[in-house]
Amino acid sequence: MIKRAIPLVLLLLASSGAVSCGTAQGAASETQVLRYQGSVGAVTLPELAEDLGYLAPVKLKWIGNTISGPQDIQAAATGQTDFGGAFNGAIVKLAARRAPIKAVVSYYGSDKDAFQGFYVLSDSPISSARDLIGKKVGMNTLGAHAEAVLKEYLKRGGLGPEEVKQVELVVLPPVNTEQALRQKQIDVAQLGGILRDKALGRGGLRPLFKDIDLLGEFSAGSYVLTEEFIAKNPNTTRKFVEAVAKALQWSQTRPREEVVARFKQIIAKRGRSEDATAVGYWRGYGVTAPGGVIAEADFQRWIDWLEREGEIPAGRVKAADLYTNAYNPLGAGR
After folding, report:
1. Could you tell me which residues are beta bridge partners of residue 101?
2. Which of 126, 272, 300, 306 lies in disulfide reach of 131, CB 3.0 to 4.6 Å?
3. pLDDT confidence tier of residue 97, bands split at 50, 70 and 90
4. Which residue has better confidence, 12 or 108?
5. Is the pTM of this model over 0.85?
6. What are the chain's domains?
C-alpha cells in the first residue's frame, strides 16, 4: 500500500515544483540566491535539492559551516543567512524571545535508522540515569535536541532538579565526540546518524539509551525563514520548500547506494577540502512525515516540556503560530 502511494506523492511534488519554477522566474523582485550554513562532510537537503535540479532557478550561497542548530536559526533570524535549521525545541525557545521566524518544512528526525543515541564505553559502570550524577555528557550544542532528550531521560530515571544539575553537559564538535569518549575525557557521548554508525563500527561502545526509546519515531527539526523574508519572497519560499520536500522524497525512494554516491559527488564538487568517508554510513534523514510536512505535535511536545522546565513562560508560545505548511505541496489543503 505504501509503495503504491509513493509515485502519486512524487507526481504531486513534481507538478507543483514545475508551477512554482515558473512563478519564481516571473518574480524578478524576489531574491534568487539563498545564503546558508552547511555541515562539514555532510550533505544537507537543500544542497541535495540544488544538485538534483529541484531548486532552480534559485541558487544556494554557502557562507560557512555550523555545528549548532540554535546558532543556525539565530543567524537566519538576524539576517546573516536566509534560512536555518534546528531542533524544534530550539525554535520554540527562539520564538519565545519574540524572534519573527516561521518553520516551513521538517528536515531531520528520529526513526529506526536515524536517531540520536547516548553511548558509553563497553566497560563503563554507567547503566542508568542515576549513574550519570557527577558525570560528563558530551553533545554538539546546548539548548537543543540532545539536551532535551537527556533531561527527559534523567527525569524518567527519577532524578530531581538538583540532581539533574549535577550532570555536566560538555559541548564538543560532533566529529570529536567519539574520540573524547574513547580518551575518557567525557563519560557519555551523544552520537547520531553517520558519526554514530561510524563509531559503532569501530566497536568498544554500548548504548545507554536512544531518543526513540523515550519518544518513539518523530520529526525533530525544521528549516525556518523569517516572516519578513516569506512576505517579500513568497515564490522563492515556495520553491525552497518544494525543492526540499522533493529532495527528501528522492532520498527515501532511491537505493541507499545511489544516494551515498550522489553525496560523495556533491562533496567532491563543492571543493571544501572535506573527507567524504562519513557519508558512506548514511541511512536516512529520519523525517517521518511525507515531504517533511510539519505536524502541530512536532512543536507542542517541546512547548509543554519547556514550560514544565520553566525555560519559557506558560502560554508565551502557541504551536500553530510557529509553522506553516502553506508552501509544501503535501501541506493541508494542497
Report:
1. 226
2. 126
3. very high
4. 108
5. no
6. 2-111+217-321 (3.40.190.10), 116-215 (3.40.190.10)
